[in-house]
């Protein structure tokens, strides 16, 4: 995906700076950025160490749902909707958009996603260019993407994985930890949800692990 390419490009740029030691470049990814960081580090050996916080493999989340409990029938229904949307758009219909977090106050959504909406759709995390919509046609690319598919053989760098014990996304971190063959640690922040670790009291606890990890491995 393009966002993985962004990581490669960032490393490219860092290697041109006289103030940067190219042998001491690490990557930190949060939420979906955690999956992108892992994917990039799996194939870019210039990245010497990897940290993730509330990591999400967006491909797996699209295929299996936020908590990893989605059915194959649900996925096939989504792909049918995507196919119909693409066909309609090819014939001149307006593009179909879907939200990436639920609307504020939607109590039917998983707790993590309700908290994500409270972050991304309010001034704390909102950006004018992020309008909580993406093309439905793009979901097929997400379904075909796997951030962790190369981990078992290629992610040999030191790895620190941080996740909340109450996060519906915890299964991503557990899967990543199980697959990674190199030096690794899975640090669970008790009582923390997914968003707590980047917009809550869990931020300090995450940083207390990340800072010494990167210091000792770079």
Topology pattern, helix = H, strand = E: HEHEHHEHEHHEHEHH
CATH topology of the largest domain: Rossmann fold
Query: Can you tell me the number of structural domains?
Result: 2
Count the E strands: 6
Which CATH first-tier class of the largest domain would you pick? Alpha Beta
What spatial form do the alpha-carbon principal axes imply? globular
- CATH-assigned homologous superfamily of the largest domain: Alpha/Beta hydrolase fold, catalytic domain
Beta content comes to 5-15%
Multimerization status: single chain
How many strands, which pairing sense, and closed or not: the largest β-sheet? Answer: 4 strands, parallel
Low-confidence stretches: none
Strand order of the largest sheet: 1-2-5-6
Please give the count of helices.
Answer: 10
Termini separation comes to 27 Å
**Class per helix and strand makeup:** alpha/beta
For the record, the CATH architecture of the largest domain stands as 3-Layer(aba) Sandwich
Please compute the radius of gyration using only Cα atoms.
18 Å
How much helicity do the residues have? Answer: 40-55%
* Residue-averaged pLDDT: 96
Walk me through the topology.
Blueprint: H1 2-15, E1 26-30, H2 32-43, E2 49-53, H3 58-64, H4 72-90, E3 97-98, H5 111-120, E4 134-135, H6 139-143, H7 151-154, E5 159-164, H8 170-179, E6 184-189, H9 196-199, H10 202-217
Parallel strand pairs: 1-2, 2-5, 5-6
Antiparallel strand pairs: 3-4
Helix pairs in contact: 1-2
């Amino acid at each position: 995906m393009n966002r993985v390419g962004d990581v490669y490009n960032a490393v490219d740029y860092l290697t041109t700076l006289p103030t940067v030691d190219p042998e001491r470049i690490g990557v930190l990814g949060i939420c979906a950025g955690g999956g992108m960081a892992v994917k990039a580090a799996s194939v870019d050996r210039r990245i010497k160490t990897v940290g993730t916080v509330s990591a999400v493999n967006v491909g797996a989340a699209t295929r299996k749902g936020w908590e990893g409990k989605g059915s194959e029938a649900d996925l096939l229904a989504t792909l049918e909707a995507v196919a119909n949307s693409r066909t309609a758009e090819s014939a001149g219909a307006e593009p179909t958009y879907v939200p990436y977090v639920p609307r504020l106050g939607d109590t039917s959504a998983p707790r993590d996603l309700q908290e994500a909406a409270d972050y991304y759709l309010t001034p704390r995390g909102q950006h004018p260019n992020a309008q909580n919509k993406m093309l439905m046609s793009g979901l097929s690319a997400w379904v075909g993407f796997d951030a962790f598919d190369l981990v078992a053989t290629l992610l040999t760098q030191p790895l620190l994985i941080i996740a909340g014990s109450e996060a519906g996304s915890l299964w991503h971190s557990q899967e990543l930890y199980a697959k990674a063959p190199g030096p690794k640690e899975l640090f669970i922040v008790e009582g923390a949800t997914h968003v707590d670790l980047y917009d809550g009291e869990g931020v300090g606890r995450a940083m207390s692990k990340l800072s010494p990890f990167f210091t000792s491995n770079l």
